[in-house]
Design a protein that fits this description.
Elements (H helix, E strand, L loop, with lengths): L1 H4 L5 H13 L4 H11 L5 H13 L4 H6 L1 H12 L11 H25 L5 H16 L1 H17 L4 H25 L6 H37 L2 H14 L28 E4 L2 E4 H10 L3 E6 L4 E4 L27 H13 L5 E7 L2 E11 L5 E10 L1 H4 L9
Antiparallel strand pairs: 1-2, 3-4, 3-7, 5-6, 6-7
Helix pairs in contact: 2-3, 2-4, 3-6, 4-11, 7-8, 7-11, 8-10, 9-10, 9-12, 10-11
Length: 401
């Protein structure tokens, strides 16, 4: 093998060349043969690094994502030789147990779609049951996006999380369409309903199967290689904070063996003096947490520095976000909007950006404000999020308690 690679021609470099050939339209079977002859087996770390370097070389993430399943077909045999061994209670164990259950729901849905012959009440009941659990699965993706991905990024693994988040958005789109089909059960001609259901069920089953394979054989093994035991303990705590799916098995959430963490440095005592008064550290923190809005502060370097912990937080935040670039906290498709808002604030072009969306019986009002010092210098961006549905219902006056 050393004759093939030489000193500067590693497996990773050969893999990059083969991936480029695939993108240029080369025959998959021929490239597979070249892979087996020249590479044979390759570690998940080398695969991750190869994709990272392709991005740095100018290949856009969307392009790699589009043909990611082709890459998996190329690497599948090598990947299947890697085993993931984690005990119950470990975050990876929890996620993989949820994968199995979600694949079972997808398979049940596919069978119903293939066997349905007419509109029967028990069929819609089964579909509603599956829909309920698919909606609950958003907790699974949220834990990955808001906890696991940030820890991978801290260790320099940035592109695999981007790819997986793109998959998550695709899954959400397929599921959203599926819910519309199920809701149309009574209003649609049976033949049209059955056809649409079958198409959506097959799309979901294939998407979940491919996505979970990539996570089980690339993302999770990479995470297990780079994330420390102490960090896994922190990740599990943050998983617990965000909560689990209604179908997450209790044995999977078995208490994780605690890794001793370094003692925290003692906090400085005393008051913080402001222009119009003074407050203790505890008072400042509790005031922010008591406000009926969610607050997130991003500094002038676009790094998330702080978020409040209000009782009814709308969008998930965990301490894994702290120190993360704000662009990495959003799906790839909306990063350009984030950059536009921050650019307008830094240049002084705008002093506010606002959006409002309907979500889960809430009207979510999202506002962004530039934070400047007395000289007008840009210090960062403040995000303020609030459910204004109760406010919109207010009429007349209320002058008495």
């Amino acid at each position: 093998m050393s004759e093939v690679f030489g000193e500067n021609n590693t497996k990773k470099e050969v893999l990059k060349k083969l991936i480029k050939k695939l993108h240029e339209g080369a025959d998959l079977e021929q490239v597979k043969k070249e892979f087996n002859d020249m590479v044979g087996e390759i570690s998940v770390t080398e695969i991750s690094k190869a994709e990272e370097e392709l991005i740095k070389d100018g290949m856009v993430p969307e392009k790699i994502h589009k043909l990611c399943d082709v890459h998996i077909a190329l690497l599948r045999e090598s990947l299947e030789k890697e085993e993931i061994l984690t005990a119950p209670g470990h975050p990876v164990h929890i996620l993989m147990q949820e994968h199995k259950i979600l694949l079972k729901f997808a398979d049940d849905l596919r069978k119903i779609a293939q066997e349905i012959t007419d509109k029967e009440k028990n069929v819609i009941d089964q579909l509603k049951h599956i829909e309920e659990h698919l909606k609950a699965s958003q907790s699974h993706y949220s834990r990955e996006e808001n906890v696991l991905f940030p820890y991978l990024e801290k260790h320099g693994i940035t592109q695999p999380p981007v790819m997986m988040w793109m998959d998550h958005d695709k899954i959400r789109e397929i599921e959203k369409n599926l819910y519309k089909i199920i809701d149309s059960y009574e209003k649609t001609e049976f033949q049209d309903f059955a056809k649409n259901l079958k198409i959506s069920a097959i799309a979901l089953a294939e998407m979940l199967s491919n996505h979970f394979y990539k996570e089980n054989h690339i993302l999770f093994p990479t995470a297990l290689k780079v994330i420390t035991e102490t960090e896994w303990t922190d990740i599990r705590k943050q998983f617990d904070e965000l909560g689990y799916c209604c179908f997450t098995p209790e044995p999977a959430k078995f208490a994780m063996e605690q890794t001793e963490t370094p003692p925290a440095k003692p906090e400085a005592k005393g008051m913080v003096q402001f222009e119009m008064g003074s407050l203790s550290k505890e008072e400042i923190e509790m005031i922010f947490n008591t406000l009926p809005v969610d607050i997130t502060f991003v500094d002038k370097e676009d790094t998330v520095r702080y978020f409040s912990q209000s009782k009814e937080r709308i969008f998930p935040r965990t301490k894994a976000h702290i120190g993360r670039k704000v662009q990495q906290c959003h799906p790839q498709k909306s990063v350009h909007i984030v950059n536009q808002i921050l650019g307008d604030f830094k240049s002084g072009k705008k002093d506010k950006a606002e959006f409002w969306i309907n979500m889960n019986n809430m009207v979510v009002y999202i506002r962004y404000f530039p934070v400047r010092n007395k000289n007008g210098d840009y210090l960062g961006c403040l995000e303020v999020t609030q459910n204004i549905a109760p406010i919109k219902k207010i009429e007349g006056e209320k002058r008495l308690l």
